[in-house]
Amino acid sequence: MHARGRRANAIGFPDQNTSCMTPKRLTIAAIGCGSRTFIYFELAAKQPELYEIVAAADHSPARLAKARALSQNPAFREFHDDVAILAEPKLADLMIIATQDAFHFGHASAALRKGYDLLLEKPISTNLRDVLALEKLARDLGRRVTVCHVLRYTPFYRRVKSIIASGALGEIVSVEATEGVEPWHQGHSFVRGHWSVVEKATPMIIAKSCHDMDILSWLV
Q1: For the segment 47-62, what is each residue's pLDDT rounded down to a tens digit?
Q2: H, E, C per residue of 17-41
């Protein structure tokens, strides 16, 4: 997502080796305060000259309290459901959508219509129809949607990318990708957890392997 006044990478936080005049702070709100949102909030809180956390929505009072503490913002606003925050006038430049898979399209499309740019947790939706509809809506409204395929921003994969781009390996004709899921993660998420019922979430091949598809398309 664009960070005003600086060259930004795709997860919304600017490269540290750039310099410019102090920009207007990017204001951030979120729907869904799970671990992913808190990662972004923590990064934003470490750079208060660039980012201001202004609002969040979640069913859990404890998570909202954590979000408020991270914001270090006395004017921070709490909402106890998605309907309430989306009923408000636009509160921030950027909305983080980090709810469960089946809700991504509804939350994202509503936020776009409110005028937000989006940082959208993967997958975009549980079906291709909604993905294409959201892309069209964003283009029609002139808004930005950045999907959280974050592996390409890790030091390891950036190094792999630079080696491939240098030509040192020659022409890449085949790539083997293995998605290893630890037993505890399998049990927690895909047997007992949110991704155990396909009607409510994407199957494992999308939930996990969409990262592989993104990184492969980027590397080669």
Answers
A1: 999 999 999 999 999 9
A2: CCCCCCCCCEEEEEECCCHHHHHHH
